[in-house]
């Protein structure tokens, strides 16, 4: 595309998420993400592990608490390791994802999107559980960065089979 429109080569895109997939209103300003007035990168620096936020952006409970799967669908966590190769990424995070959820979308906080591509991103939580989502992957993903994850509930397989 840059061969056709070289003027776009220096354009910085600051959003790595699809706001229609998020259960709460989320917006960006530069490389920072906000829910309500809460700067998610600044808030993540105040916590030692991942945490859930409510629709106003207020932190509610650590990701290891049971409240997350039922009441909150946005998780803010830090990347502890990242491996990117061949259009795929494996990202280890410092939080536990609820087993009853899937990832709807991810947003990388504090990373410019110049050179970003659509990729399969596998998130590995502290328990070793893996979830994969096809989303925009910035070129500059690094460990210690902040990742915000939109979660969606999944149907209980046993309940679906019983119907």
Summarize the structure.
The protein has 163 residues and is mostly beta strands. 10% of the residues lie in helices and 42% in strands.
Molecular structure report:
- With 163 residues, the protein is mainly β.
- It has one domain (14-154): Lyase, Ornithine Decarboxylase, Chain A, domain 1.
- The chain has three helices and eleven strands, in the order E-E-E-H-E-E-H-E-E-E-E-E-E-H.
- The protein has helices spanning 40-45, 67-71, 157-162, and strands at 26-29, 32-35, 38-39, 51-53, 59-62, 74-85, 88-93, 101-109, 117-124, 130-137, 146-153.
- Strands 4, 5, 6, 7, 8, 9, 10 and 11 form an eight-stranded mixed sheet that branches. A three-stranded antiparallel sheet has the order 1-2-3.
- The longest helix is centred in the first third of the chain and has 6 residues, at 40-45.
- The radius of gyration is 16 Å and the shape is globular.
- Residues 1-15 have low confidence and may be disordered.
């Amino acid at each position: 595309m840059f061969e056709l429109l070289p003027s776009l080569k220096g354009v910085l895109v600051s959003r790595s998420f699809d706001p229609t997939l998020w259960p709460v209103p989320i917006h960006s300003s530069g490389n920072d993400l906000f829910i309500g007035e809460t700067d998610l990168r600044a808030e993540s620096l105040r916590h030692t592990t991942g945490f859930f936020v409510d629709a106003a952006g207020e932190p509610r409970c650590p990701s290891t608490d049971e409240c997350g799967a039922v009441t909150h669908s946005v998780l803010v966590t830090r990347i502890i390791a990242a491996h990117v190769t061949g259009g795929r990424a494996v990202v280890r995070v410092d939080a536990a994802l609820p087993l009853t959820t899937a990832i709807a979308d991810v947003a990388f906080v504090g990373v410019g999107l110049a050179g970003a591509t659509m990729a399969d991103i596998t998130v590995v939580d502290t328990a070793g559980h893996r979830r994969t989502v096809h989303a925009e992957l910035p070129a500059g993903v690094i460990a210690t960065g902040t990742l915000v994850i939109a979660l969606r509930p999944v149907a209980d397989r046993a309940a679906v089979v019983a119907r």
